[in-house]
Design a protein that fits this description.
heterodimer, A: mainly alpha, MetI-like fold, globular, B: 303 residues
Chain lengths: 327, 303
């Protein structure tokens, strides 16, 4: 179990069938089971059963309920008031009858795009730089990862001090603070999403850097040595040798980046409740719960859109961890 | 899980770069110093603003030096908002949530990793996938469930899950179980199986084997996960925002939404409030950095 990063390379062609996923060899399993008394089995059942019940009851049951309710119209009061209306909620969404939907999709896509194409590569770049033997690398690492421990709500507060039109740092430096020329970074709907994304990336980059630093540490140093003996430049070594070996981490980072982009909520909500240019799917779901009109069916349909988008990365992640299981 | 052989090649890499890239190194350090300063700037700016009285910044501007410096903003933020109350709310939720999550997750991880069942893989998938769901996927029905599900008066003064510390704690446990189970089962797989057999030979039942043999060996991942879970649950904004109605009962992070604009009227107070609320996580950063990072990376690399 030494080197997860390399394991992917040496992995034999995957055998098919259930055996592949077995955690212990079947023979060993049988012997172990015979050692279990009836009481042991009961205890094991409880040890697994109670947590599993909690997880299924509070996470998976509502997920399934979201799916069912998305085909209904319900204001949330009285189970007998639930009315099945087929795909009406979905058609209201996709045909634009519910106006915030497409802007929210667009904002989520922009969010994902910035995270995936800018923030994540920057995080990786920092990790590559700091993975070298540099004096003070610890200090640099700490500085970049500091925002990771902060909540996104606090990140919103801290960046307000930089963005606010009357008292913010940027407008103060520009000399426009408190004047009519002041740029309202988080209020102007043409730019606020980008301003918020700067703040979100500030935190995301550190997160990705930490993950890649761990991944890079697990790369067998002899690989690099071999590459440099073969005359590969530093860049070639990274892209041709190190990056492919980092495949498991790359998948984790990809999944985290996508899921974080879908979960994005706190920062926009604390900034302006996700209005006026900062609409996101997660905010729309919330508005349909705590807004004045509680539209359970509709909110569920929005949740299903989120679920469908997240299924891809979730499956990717699962297959990846299952493959490791087999190795 | 770094191999012991790691030292020699690293040494080779180091000497090579020493020989070659002097000017490159200077450039690299310049770049990294600049980046670090940019990264620290927002927090440094908040700290600086918080130390200055509103009157001075109003007169001199925010980007200025001079006037007086002191902790009055911190005192104002602390007393005006009754921050201790919100910290207490957080503690009531976080402490039991972290302990129970780790306890329950390690039991599942133990069963899944130490015994071969038909459902092992399915269970692990269920937990892992559940951990990756966006919270908003479950919140709409969950909100209705919380309004309807009865709870004994002992843990709920209104008789249901909604608007209760207990309810918030439960959703944290249910949600975080996924990640912790995944990490702990990966770790437990690396513990030699013979330990189980030895325990059985000694006449220990399943739970004794778990509690006295396996769990003590899991101290490293448990410490890392405890640090990480504390930070994550402390930082949670969403669950308590939706599932806790009474503003005065909200944990500190969710409470920020209501405090904004209402109590934190100028940037100096916002800055002081931010620093105060960030303090527990900053302590994690300075004191438990290693644990926190190990927790984060345990999920992505094995061991």
């Amino acid at each position: 179990m030494t080197d997860p990063a390399i394991r992917g390379l040496n992995e034999p062609a995957a055998p098919t069938g259930r055996r592949r996923f077995g955690i212990l060899p079947p023979s060993g399993a049988r012997r172990r089971f015979s050692l279990l008394t009836r009481r042991d089995k009961l205890v094991l059942g409880l040890m697994v059963g109670i947590p599993t019940f909690l997880h299924v009851f509070f996470i998976w049951l509502p997920t399934v309920a979201s799916g069912v309710l998305s085909f209904t119209s319900w204001n949330g009061i009285g189970l007998d008031k639930i009315k099945f209306i087929g795909f009406k909620n979905y058609s209201d969404l996709f045909t634009g009858i519910y106006q915030p939907f497409w802007p929210a999709i667009q904002h989520n896509v922009i969010w994902l795009g910035v995270f995936l194409l800018i923030a994540t590569p920057i995080g990786m770049f920092f990790a590559v730089l700091l993975d070298k033997e540099i004096r003070g690398t610890r200090i640099y690492q700490s500085a970049i990862y500091l925002p990771v421990v902060l909540s996104l709500a606090i990140v919103g507060f801290i960046w307000q001090l930089i963005y606010s039109p009357d008292e913010g740092f940027i407008n103060s430096v520009l000399g426009t603070a408190g004047t009519a020329q002041a740029v309202d970074w988080v209020g102007n709907r043409k730019i606020n999403l980008w301003a918020i994304l700067v703040a979100a990336s500030w935190r995301h980059i550190g997160y990705i850097m930490v993950l890649y630093l761990a991944g890079l540490k697990s790369v067998d140093p002899s690989l690099r040595e071999a590459a440099s003996i073969d005359g590969a430049s530093e860049r070639q070594t990274f892209f041709r040798v190190v990056f492919p070996v980092l495949r498991p981490i790359n998948i984790v980072v990809l999944v985290i980046t996508v899921i974080e982009s879908l979960r994005a909520f706190d920062l926009v909500f604390i900034t302006n409740r996700g209005l006026n240019g900062l609409e996101l799917l997660s905010v729309l779901v919330t508005n349909n719960i705590i807004g004045e009109a509680s539209r359970v069916g509709f909110g569920s349909a929005l949740a299903m859109v989120l679920l469908v988008i997240s299924v891809g990365p979730i499956i990717l992640y699962l297959t990846r961890s299952l493959r490791e299981e087999a190795a | 899980m770094t191999a012991p052989a790691i030292t020699r090649p690293v040494e080779a890499v180091r000497t090579r770069s020493r020989r070659g890239l002097r000017p490159g190194r200077i450039l690299l350090h310049g770049f990294l110093i600049l980046t670090s300063l940019i990264w620290l700037f927002p927090i440094g700016w908040a700290a600086y603003t918080a130390l200055r009285p509103y009157g001075d910044t109003a007169k001199l501007g925010y980007v200025s030096i001079g006037g007086s410096y002191g902790f009055q903003n911190f005192i104002d933020a602390w007393t005006r908002v009754d921050i201790p109350k919100f910290f207490a709310n957080t503690l009531i939720i976080v402490v039991p949530a972290v302990v129970l999550t780790l306890f329950l997750a390690s039991m599942v991880a133990f069963a899944v990793s130490r015994y071969s069942w038909r459902f092992n893989l399915g269970l692990l998938m269920l937990f892992t996938a559940g951990n990756l769901l966006p919270q908003q996927v479950v919140i709409t029905p969950l909100y209705r469930m919380y309004l309807a599900l009865p709870l004994p008066k002992l843990v709920s003064d209104n008789g249901v899950f909604y608007d209760q510390y207990f309810g918030i704690m439960m959703i944290h446990i249910a949600f975080q179980l996924g990640f912790c189970t995944f990490v702990l089962s990966n770790y437990m797989k690396t513990i030699p199986k013979e330990l189980n057999e030895a325990a059985v030979v000694d006449g220990a039942g399943v739970f004794r084997t778990f509690w006295d043999v396996i769990l003590p060996l899991c101290r490293p991942p448990l410490a890392a996960l405890a640090t990480l879970q504390f930070t994550w649950i402390y930082n949670d904004f969403f669950w308590a925002l939706i599932l806790m109605f009474t503003g005065d009962k909200r944990p500190i992070t969710s409470a920020l939404n209501g405090l904004k604009g209402q109590f934190f009227t100028d940037n100096n107070l916002v800055a002081a409030g931010s620093i105060i609320v960030a303090l527990p996580t900053l302590i994690v950063f300075f004191v438990l950095q290693k644990q926190f990072i190990r927790g984060l990376t345990l999920g992505s690399t094995k061991g």
